[in-house]
Amino acid sequence: MTVTSPRKSITSVDSSALETLVGYNARRASLVITEVFVERMVVHDLRMVEFSILSLVGHNPGITSRQLSSALSILPPNLVSLVNGIDKRGLIERQPHPVDGRAVGLHLTSAGETLLAEAEHTAAQLEIESTASLSAAERKTLIRLLQKIYRA
Predict the structure, then answer these.
(1) How far is it, in rounded angstroms, from Cα 136 to Cα 143?
(2) How many CB atoms lie within 10 A of CB 37?
(3) What whole-number distance in Å separates Cα of residue 123 and Cα of residue 33?
(4) In contact, 65 and 106? CB cutoff 8 Å
(5) What is the pTM (predicted TM-score) of this model?
(6) Which of 37, 55, 71, 101 is deepest in the core (most CB within 10 A)?
(7) 3-state SS of the chain?
(8) What is the pLDDT of residues 103-117, one digit of tens each?
(9) Angle formed by the axes of helices 110-130 and 48-59, nearest 10°
(10) Mean pLDDT, the chain, as a whole number?
């Protein structure tokens, strides 16, 4: 018969191994910001992906669904339903593409422009609050470093 030593009771969790991983730290930070984002965007009735679509359309009038799909890494069939939902809310409109006769450009309606301005203000505020422990220079550096990873 083998005798085993009694098991220890854990009083605090050692996550130091995980904390050496970029992915773990990026995900933990993302969870903090995403939680606040979701709470604050309720007043605008926007999910994160809808906000992203509106922002890209607003800052790139005439963007095509194909370009949106690529920029957001969303499969085209999934993007179609998202764009249709935003269109039904009267926030975007489709117009013929000036160069590609087969493509349709997306544009914000005046209601879409108003909502985007309000939502972008909300997003800017929540980002400042969520990263309050960082200086403006540190925030800028963090964004630059994260972009180096996903733009590689």
Answers:
(1) 11
(2) 19
(3) 10
(4) yes
(5) 0.86
(6) 37
(7) CCCCCCCCCCCCCCCCCHHHCHHHHHHHHHHHHHHHHHHHHHHHCCCHHHHHHHHHHHHCCCECHHHHHHHHCCCHHHHHHHHHHHHHCCCEEEEECCCCCCCEEEEECHHHHHHHHHHHHHHHHHHHHHCCCCCHHHHHHHHHHHHHHHCC
(8) 899 999 999 999 999
(9) 120
(10) 93
Query: What is the average pLDDT across 49-77?
Result: 96
Residue 66 one-letter amino acid: R
- Residue 106 structure tokens: 């997306």
Tokens 């605090």 belong to residue:
12
Q: Give the number of residues written for the chain.
A: 152
Contacts of 115 (CB under 8 A, 6+ apart): 44, 46, 54, 91
Q: What percent of the chain has pLDDT over 70?
A: 97
In the block, tokens 């939902």 appear at 85
